[in-house]
């Protein structure tokens, strides 16, 4: 990091005649501000991710919540956290700026973790303790549930504020257009940032989970709260060093303006001759594309004197939008079907609560002294993903580039499809392993003794975790690259926001699926597939159901790929289209750019 700071200083142009006032901006930002931002994001991830794996045990044992209900609560918690990331991005872009949104998120997360810690410390905030699988356990009171769910809510607000803004805020510190090596500095920052995320996730899934298993909930929840205190203070300590970019117009508002303007002009004919469009800042785009033509009305100028100011800007942006705004919204709408194909793989990846319960009933020893915590098995997914990404980038892509002539190796849609197939395979393996585990537990006489550890190694769960890691490496990264390639450059931030929103939808789908399966399978007095005692339930049937849904989703994905058509890089294609438009001078009014694909 020190070397990078030195490089940055050497790369900054010098000017002996620069006044003291013009020197002030150069004192802000740069790599000197990076430790405060990365520590804030890393500690927030260690604290929040470390709470998730064992939370199902806390809900079941501390609050006497059934397995299906507890899993639904955790699904909803994740869904709200991911959905609020869209709100956080909107607030930072349109109103408060990234610094204040991250600061707000840090203190909201701290408040939530403190409340959660208090539920473990103060006995009155939980129901009276009882035997884990007793039928006479008292339910939590409304007040106790309000405190618990409030802690989840504050942590969701914190995650929604910090996660969408942290990377962009770090890039703001280094994004100096006058620096010839600006792009290399940004790439270096992204490497450090992603490395910190990987390390944070591994620490959360190992050390924090280990503390909870061996020191109890008071210490296990207290440590994340302390880490969040450090996270918030570190971020504030660096305040004087930060570059704080001023708030600009949000893309989200621009999308709404296009819809409103097109709706207000819905009776305007699109086939009229001599139609004049509002170019905006990019005069190279002569006319909008023919895809989703109904939106083209938003950028049609009806009367230049009534619609435009003297300098060319629209008098009312809710009546007249630019071609660029219209095409940006079209690009977003076109990828929605492809985006929806990613829900099921995320649903399959989010079955961690049940996998943790499985691991808790199995032999988790590595040798006579080492025992892996039940909540730490997810780390095998992270490790597999990290290793495969490195191998794919360094070895597979160069090889495929030589064989296929494509510099990126496999196409984005191909990788997305491979990920979907691997997720279905992982769920099938999960179902087979659970069927074997359940049969062995019953044969060993543990049908009504779920707290007993059976004579079957939990290492049998590792293959499914590794397959999930490969599935995520192919599909998730492929999805994000697909969005980046299909969106104009001004929509780069939307790509990650769209993926995050997909995670929120997937969590909602997972929550509803658990509720429906639990309610449907326990009708007539039958034991639910998702019983509190997995040995009496049929978790394997539930896994097979998700496997079938993943296969159906893959068929749907193939249909969406066919409907979408070729997916060339929209940014490169747009440059070619603009050159063609500028060369065509015979009939400018009839010129049409090829569709963004």
From TrEMBL:
Q: Per UniProt, what is the membrane topology?
A: Multi-pass membrane protein
Extract the signal peptide range.
none
Q: Which InterPro entries match?
A: MFS_trans_sf (IPR036259), POT_fam (IPR000109)
List all membrane-crossing ranges.
73-92, 99-125, 145-171, 192-211, 223-243, 331-350, 370-393, 414-433, 462-484, 496-517, 541-565
Q: Where is the composition biased (Polar residues)?
A: 11-24
Which parts of this chain are annotated as the region Disordered?
A: 1-27
Instruction: Give yes or no: UniProt keyword Transmembrane.
Output: yes
Compartmental location:
Membrane
CC per GO annotation: membrane
**Pfam families documented for this protein:** PTR2
Main location class: membrane
Keyword annotations: Membrane, Transmembrane, Transmembrane helix
Q: Cite a single GO MF annotation.
A: transmembrane transporter activity
Source species, domain of life: Eukaryota
Give the record's family classification. Belongs to the major facilitator superfamily. Proton-dependent oligopeptide transporter (POT/PTR) (TC 2.A.17) family.
- Identify this protein by name: Protein NRT1/ PTR FAMILY 1.2-like
Which species is listed as the source? Quercus rubra (Northern red oak)
